[in-house]
């Protein structure tokens, strides 16, 4: 009896170890850039496709369970800066209203890379699976110090610094 | 006499240690993004200014001593993708023909950050000092593997991957 119990316990422990810890949504916040998106349905990814999306900065709120995506997407041939909101469901997947309904899941997130899985159902009821990878813009402290030092050496005030990552238009 | 000679030698060694090794131009190649640019002359950096430049990828050639800059800049209100070439001079500074003449110097370059100094002399003879910092888009192998694994699990062919960093338009 004891042996059976221990064996079951051991299986449970092993199974738990195999499941990757759920990524912290808080890590999502920051400046991210789209690297790759893949789908069987390339119509959604072509130049004017709705998922030709250049991510800028998602902002996540762990308490509210929301993610605000800020991104560029094409709309009738022109680039548009869009704000799209995702709401976390009980299963950890975000419900996102964009080009139909989406179930957006963070598969892997670290300080530098984000891998996400999305199922879109468009207004015609067509289902499309998309997988995206995104890279975080990390600015190394040592380099920032060199920049600051050089600016001071040249006698230029801090207020004259233009931030291109935040104002990226 | 010996003491004086040793003291001079010691001073020379110390001075040599203070000088930072010249950055390798080969490290310049890759996908970079503009983070900050600073100048006393903000006219050059305002929304339609010639140095409101979003760097994409410089390609350097150590043997030829050239750097090819690919970047976006505004031209009469529209974004233009530009190719600008720099030629290395004997002093290690690049001569670049863009909005007048430029002396472009790499001050610091690592695997993640680039700090550069530029002196522009425009067609009216006005001199402007600019300092820029740029961040490299590094894609972590672990994250790439997760993306690949997920793509394979979903049965999507590699040829369906859209590279957003390379086709960033």
UniProtKB/TrEMBL annotation, chains A, B:
Gene3D superfamilies given in the database record: 2.40.128.20
Top-level taxon of the source organism: Eukaryota
KW Phosphoprotein (keyword) present: no
Major subcellular site: secreted
An annotated GO cellular component: extracellular space
Keyword 4Fe-4S: no
Keyword terms of this UniProt record: Secreted, Signal, Transport
Subcellular location per the Swiss-Prot or TrEMBL entry: Secreted
Pfam families named in the record: Lipocalin
Signal peptide: 1-21
Molecular function GO labels: odorant binding; small molecule binding
Domain (Lipocalin/cytosolic fatty-acid binding) ranges: 29-168
Family: Belongs to the calycin superfamily. Lipocalin family.
Official protein name in the record: Lipocalin/cytosolic fatty-acid binding domain-containing protein
Source species: Muntiacus reevesi (Reeves' muntjac)
């Amino acid at each position: 009896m004891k042996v059976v119990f221990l064996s079951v316990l051991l299986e449970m422990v092993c199974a738990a170890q195999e499941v990757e810890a759920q990524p912290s949504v808080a890590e999502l916040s920051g400046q991210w850039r789209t690297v790759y998106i893949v789908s069987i349905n390339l119509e959604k990814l072509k130049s004017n496709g709705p998922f030709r999306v250049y991510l800028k900065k998602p902002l996540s709120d762990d308490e509210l369970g929301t993610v605000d995506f800020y991104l560029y997407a094409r709309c009738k041939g022109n680039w548009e800066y869009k704000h799209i909101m995702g709401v976390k469901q009980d299963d950890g997947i975000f419900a996102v209203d964009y080009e139909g309904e989406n179930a957006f899941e963070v598969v892997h997130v670290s300080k530098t890379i984000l891998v996400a899985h999305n199922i879109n159902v468009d207004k015609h009821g067509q289902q499309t699976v998309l997988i995206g990878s995104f890279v975080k813009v990390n600015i190394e402290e040592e380099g920032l110090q060199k920049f600051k030092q050089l600016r001071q050496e040249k006698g230029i005030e801090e207020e004259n610094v233009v931030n291109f990552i935040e104002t990226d238009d």
